[in-house]
Write a structure and sequence with these properties.
This protein is α+β, with helices and mostly antiparallel strands. The protein has a domain of about 180 residues: START domain (Alpha-D-Glucose-1,6-Bisphosphate, Chain A, domain 4, 2-Layer Sandwich). The protein is about 35% helix and about 30% strand. The protein contains 8 helices and 8 strands. It has an 8-stranded mixed beta sheet with strand order 2-3-4-5-6-8-1-7. A hairpin with a 6-residue loop joins strand 5 and strand 6. Helix 1 packs across helix 5 and helix 1 packs parallel to helix 7. The radius of gyration is 19 Å and the shape is globular. This is Cytoplasmic phosphatidylinositol transfer protein 1. One of its GO terms (molecular function) is phosphatidylinositol transfer activity. InterPro entries: PI_transfer, PI_transfer_N, START-like_dom_sf. It comes from Anopheles dirus. Belongs to the PtdIns transfer protein family. PI transfer class IIB subfamily.
Length: about 270
Amino acid sequence: MVLIKEYRICMPLTVEEYKIGQLYMIARHSLEQSDDGEGVEVIENKECYDPDHGKGQYTEKRIHLSSRLPYWLQAVCPKVFYVIEKGWNYYPYTVTEYTCSFIPKLHIRILTRFEDNAGTSENCLNLSEETLKNRIVDHVDIAFEEPAEKHYKKEEDPKFFKSRITGRGPLVEGWRQTDEPMMCSYKLVEASFEVWGLQTRVEDFIQKCIRDVLLLGHRQAFAWIDEWHGMSIDDVRTYEKDKQTEANDKLRQSLPPAMETDKAQENN
């Protein structure tokens, strides 16, 4: 059975504010995580259209992460290893898919919806009865859960951070019941790795990695609010484009020659 989890991450923001904060956070976070041949490389970023959701933004990325895998996965992965991320952003609804050409049995699908509440909607993603029965709901607390020690920064800790522009923060015990404004990111994550003997272990590992990224990213989106609050959508798209160019250049400078050859062949 595919492992299905629904993460609910509350933020002291409105859904409209988070539209800007999310784009800023992803662009900046991707640049900061790009180093020593690992990180996020943007392949495409363009407008798209869906008959049900209207205009949106399509992105395709390569996430290079060989050395970040556990040793038991590194043993079977090539040295040059990346995951392909495809995303369709019809804010406040998004779809994201992850695949890997080296591991065709690996597939991750994330459905997301943002709402102005404290995580109280039971089925905002319009899930089927079967999915509702099998999902595991996991509330992620950006203030009182901490990321891995290597990612921890006191200035990004919501328990200590106070926004100079909005006056929000620090977040104290019970903040999700008392603070205003309040929004929630609902994310349904389906992780599938249908390989006998490894399925449960790998799917658990994938869910843990995704949860860790969600915790860190949402903490940063709030802690960086004074950097992005007041930006227009055009402002943040320009920022996003600039950071994507920086991240791509940084990553390509450290890619092995074999990868550069592969990329050149793809472009021809």
